Amino acid sequence: MKHILSIIGCLFFIFPVWSQKTSNEKIKDSIKKYALISERSYKKYQYKETIEAANKGIMYSRKINDLYSLSVLCGDLGLAYQGISEFAKSKRNYLKALEYAKLEKNDALQSVVYNNLGNLYSDSYKKIDSALSYYEESLKLAIKLKDTFEILTPILNIGWTYIDEKKYDTAYPYLIDSEKMIYTKHGDEEGKVQVNYLLGRYTMAKEKYELADTYFKKAINFSEDAEVLDVLTEIYKHYADLAEKQGKSEVAYNRLLIHLKYKDSLYNETKIRENQAAIARFSVDDFREDLKRSEVEKRDQEIIINKTKQISYVLMIAGFILVLLLINMFKNHKFRNKALAKLRLKNTELREAKEEAEQQANLKSQFFSTVSHELRTPLYGVVGLTSLLTEDFPNLKENENFKSLKFSSNYLLSLINNVLQVNKIESEGVKLQRLPFNLKSLVNELVNSFSFAMNQNKNKVHQEIDPKIPEIVMGDSVRLSQILMNLIGNAIKFTEGGNIWIQLKSVKQENKQHTIQFSIKDDGIGISKDKQEVVFDKFVQLRPIEKNYQGTGLGLSIVKRLLLLFDSDIKLQSEENKGSEFVFAITFEESKELFVKDVPLSTNAIDTMNKKILIVDDNKINRVVTKRILETKKYQLMLLKMVLQL
Questions:
Q1: Where is the Response regulatory domain (predicted)?
Q2: Which of 360, 228, 283 shows the shortest CA–CA distance to 50?
Q3: Mean pLDDT, the chain, whole residue set
């Protein structure tokens, strides 16, 4: 509270000081404001706004006899009137600016005004002698000031004028002096463009074509950081002339095209200037009337401002309101600090909860992986033993209980393999390989592998492979096989007495990159709209109640995750009782190899009678199963019963 009282005391001390601010200070603020508006508006070719702001600034400057501001603002008026081709008014305002600069005894202002008068006579009146006279006056004052920047401007303008008049020898000393100055701290990018451009014209006139080419290139390089569209247009015009003189007709033609491009841009910019000039011409007279009304309004406002007692009362009321606001701000500050403390605590709790959740997720993944591995070991024995039993006791093949046992063991092994596959993908343990393979053969082999299931469900499979697809492509055929096997298997499983269409279509080709669209379509039971969003989730089984479609609910989840490795996604279109269509696209590179070599393994490659195989396994049942399987192939076997522990 002690600090608040101190602040309040300071405020009541400051208020009277503010109320005593002189009228001169307010006028100076207004002058600065309108001078800034005038300068910015002129740079944007907004001549109307420039004239309005400059006149308002002049009105305030006259009240306090600010000669410096009067000179600057009259100079701005001269520039604006020159922009709208009101040359007489431009000259009149330049001369006023010069008069005020002399009264102020400011050589820098005089140098600027003389340079502007030189530009007026050179560009507008086309009176070269008068223009050179004004440039010389500007140069004398700049030399007197020893200001490199102020010296550079008239020297460059004099040299430019002589170049335009084709007085190259007269222009040369001025150009050399300008070149020395532009590479000092006072030189800017625009000056560098102009000097190199003029030196290029000079050396071209002197038939020093190689040197001229160097100067023109420098001018173009510097123009990248300078907004000199008009100069750049002229550079390419003369640069084309240089190429013509050098006998480079094609180069000259290309440079002339660039010149015409910049000329079009300059024409658009010139149109903008002309439009702004037209607006300014029609608005100047209206502005004078507005200015008179403005002056009357300003006088009325000044009378109101002079009523200091009323202002004091207003300030006192404002001070009282400010005190109330400060008290309210103090309370809000305390409340905000409490809220921030609670928020920080909540953030800490959320961060800890997030870390715990991530840890639990990792533990869950490790648990699934470990348990699945441990389950698969005894399952190997169960599946192997059931296969061996059918060989030892052929009658068991017709036993319903034995069939159920064999089906359940195979189903459980498939489930565990799928769980391991999902965990491996999620832990980023699956990496795509890049090997050549025959895509058409791969599809044919996959379809043939489902021949038993298709016959059992009485389905027909239709293949359509685009002939544009290359014979051999580079990619991971194993992961692609997993994707297609899951999709084709689902289509066959959920379709009875129907059709399955497998279509491969080339949708994009760039160089040797081929984007191939895969479509697996069936006319089976389909998927309802409300369940299509969750069909790719893990352990989701969308089966009708009246029929038991066996499955783990992981197939489509594995498909979606494998496609992410290919930078692809899968789309589903389905309608209940009308079938489903799964579509995805993968980009493969066409292989340089003409064919993939398939080397069949000869059954006579190994002499089974003279070869011994050592079976090592820490599970006795698995050792027995493996032994029985290999014995059917007539191998000689050795069992290692000792379990090694690391």
A1: 612-646
A2: 283
A3: 79
Cα Rg of the chain, angstroms: 46
DSSP 644: P
How many CB atoms lie under 10 A from the CB of residue 340? 10
Same domain as 215, residue 138: no
Listed residues 299, 319, 340: the one ending a domain: 299
Question: Which residue has 């953030």 as its token pair?
Answer: 347
- The C-alpha atoms of residue 271 and residue 269 are separated, in whole angstroms, by 5
Q: Do 83 and 47 touch, CB atoms closer than 8 A? A: yes
From residue 546, give the alpha-carbon distance in Å to each of 268, 430, 499, 535: 77, 38, 22, 19
Strands 579-590 and 570-575: antiparallel
Residue 422 lies in a domain: no
Q: What tokens were used for 403?
A: 């069939």
Helix H, strand E, coil C: the string for 159-202 is HHHHHHCCCHHHHHHHHHHHHHHHCCCCCCHHHHHHHHHHHHHH
* Residue closest to 201 by CA, chosen among 189, 213, 218: 213
Which CATH number does the domain housing residue 484 bear? 3.30.565.10
First to last CA, the chain: 73
Helix, strand, coil % in the chain, rounded to nearest 5? 70, 10, 20
**441 CB-contact burial (10 Å; exposed 0-12 / middle 13-18 / buried 19+):** middle
* The two three-digit tokens of residue 8, written as one number: 């309040």
Distance of alpha carbon 608 from alpha carbon 601, whole angstroms: 14
Give yes or no: residues 285 and 253 share one domain. Answer: yes
| Rounded Cα distance, 528 and 572, in Å | 11
457 pLDDT band (50/70/90 cuts)? confident
Verify that 92 and 113 share a domain, yes or no: no
Task: Count CB atoms within 10 A of the CB of residue 591.
Answer: 19
Burial-class residue 202 by CB neighbours within 10 Å (0-12, 13-18, 19+).
buried
131 pLDDT above the threshold of 80: yes
Rounded to an integer, the average pLDDT of 207-223 is: 89
Domain boundary among 542, 569, 590: 590
pLDDT at 643 over 80: no
Residues 54, 70 contacting (CB under 8 angstroms)? no
CA dihedral 81, 84, 87, 93 (to 10 degrees): 0
Residues 6+ apart with CB under 8 A from 367: none
Do residues 159 and 139 lie in contact, with contact meaning Cβ atoms separated by under 8 Å?
Answer: no
Assess whether 125 and 93 both reside in one domain. no
Residue 568 · residue 508 · CB < 8 Å = no
User: Quick one: 157 and 229 in the same domain?
Assistant: no
The predicted-structure confidence for 355-376, as pLDDT tens digits, reads as follows 888 777 666 666 656 666 666 6
Residue numbers of the domain that contains 127: 106-166
Q: Residues 561, 426: contact at Cβ < 8 Å?
A: yes
Q: Do residues 231 and 197 lie in contact, with contact meaning Cβ atoms separated by under 8 Å?
A: yes
Q: Are residues 526 and 455 in the same domain?
A: yes
For residue range 1-45, list pLDDT tens digits in order. 444 444 444 544 444 444 445 678 888 899 999 999 998 888 787
Q: Check: CB of residue 512 under 8 Å from CB of residue 589.
A: yes
Asked if the structure places residue 426 within a domain, the reply is no
CB 539 within 8 A of CB 554: yes
Distance CA 372, CA 507 (A): 41
Q: Are residues 448 and 544 in the same domain?
A: yes
Banded pLDDT at 202 (limits 50, 70, 90): very high
Nearest C-alpha neighbor of 437 from the set 272, 598, 273: 598
Q: What is the CATH number of the domain that holds 28?
A: 1.25.40.10
| 320 inside domain | no
Residue 18 near residue 315, CB atoms below 8 Å: yes
